Protein: L-aspartate oxidase
Organism: Nocardioides furvisabuli
Amino acid sequence: MTDHRPVPGRLRAPAPGWTTRADVVVVGSGIAGLTAALRIHAADPSLHLLVVTKDVLAAGSTQWAQGGIAAALGPGDTPEQHEHDTLVAGAGACDVDAVRALVTEGPDAVRELIALGTQFDHHPDGELSLTREGGHHRDRIAHAGGDATGAEIQRALIAAVEQSPLIEVVQHALAVDLLLAGDGGVAGVTLHVLGEGQRDGVGAVHCRAVVLASGGLGQVFSQSTNPSVSTGDGMAVALRAGARLRDLEFVQFHPTVMWLGPDSQGQQPLISEAVRGEGAFLVDDEGRRFMQGEHPLADLAPRDVVAKAITRRMLETDRPHMWLDARHLGPEFWSRRFPTILRVCREHGVDPVTELIPVAPAQHYASGGVATDLWGRTSVPGLYATGEVACSGVHGANRLASNSLLEGLVFSRRIADVLPGELRPWAGPAADERVEGLVSGDRRRGLQEVMTTRVGVLRHADGLAEALDFLHRLDPGDPVVEPAAWETTNLLAISTALAEAAALRTETRGSHWREDFPDRDDTRAGHVDSWLDDDGTVRVEWIATPSTDPSTEGARA
């Protein structure tokens, strides 16, 4: 169409006002980024590492992880059982080798976290306290502070980084774009820094490798459990640099997010799956336990199953939310096991000890991201990705509960195993011929609303076409060069790739639910790759692979 507006090839930004050098730049300070920095430093202490984070070190998604971290640590549990549960939850779209790496290396990685100083919860007899969440057939979720696992892991990692003088940290730094060498590989990264002494405003870091660990894309949608910094920056930076993104259509909507009212926006309070793991259950307005009969695991079914069941029941009863009943857990158990959730619920006027909690699905986790191999390498030389920004292949169409922290831990360790030995030689940035552009920050709200209503839990060809038409025609407005505009431009790029991928996948699989194609089709169990053409058009491609769901082996189409 004549008014089809291209996605910018780079962000409009001032020329760098300062420069510095580092061997490796790690973008992000959650479990993935800090683990990568610590492990790379341990592998080669001579390397100068620079960790840049958009907010402060403790911000980001890791600190919000309530449930815990999954690993085969309990009696009778094995990596093989963890692998089976992960593959089943992934609905045929996992990479088996990636899953195997995750579950076999996971227990040692968690033990290393403990050795680093992470204080997980233990039983009175000293044994590690493990619980169960949706999709798991064993108690294998290690937790800390009851429901503050992510915050405790973040605390321990930050303490370790602060004791490493050769790991430099720059806070309040937004990654703007990669600097590319003549061969298309990494030569550096431009940053916008707020108030870091000599480094203020836009600058350039010349480096030999970049590790993206920048988290997810939650702010694509109106309601999300993600913090405000999760605007898909790392994915957009990679896309503009020529990297391939994979399986962006697999967006996980957490089934039990506290419903705050019809006009609520931004980050919403998560009611951890672990609450259901401890015996809470879902009911409708009439008190009926509607998950009974929906799945053999009932209220502990995989998240896509529960989110769809809640959404269906909401549509059937014309209600904006369902209810979570955890009253029978009692005040002492709530205070000990879920103190954070208890406090947040009460802050919003609900006492879960005596009242039902209103819940509805909201965007939670991106299973897709920057496509990587088993060692975190992307299709751009010198660019690595780990954690939620990456698509390592472990999550498939639907992440198994509490595998996210483990993925960041395991694959950051894997990056550290190879990166020091394959560092690129120093190279200056080549002339940047990518077409620059910018979208005004005030366009974000409209974009989020379209993505929520047309590309949310329920998807249909007509709605996806409407979303793409909106995105392709989006008027950039009169943008001021500022972080809000950079973030909104990133959201536009990722939203376009996500909607294009969702339109191409004409089936229902895992967290991708097409009302017009309600059945799973294992002839389409492969992947959707996205990339940016030189003219600013987002392209998508179908990559056929066999189903990897062990529960359907022998029944593949």
About this structure: The first strand starts at residue 10 and ends at 11. The mean pLDDT is 93. The CA atoms of residues 219 and 231 lie 5 Å apart.
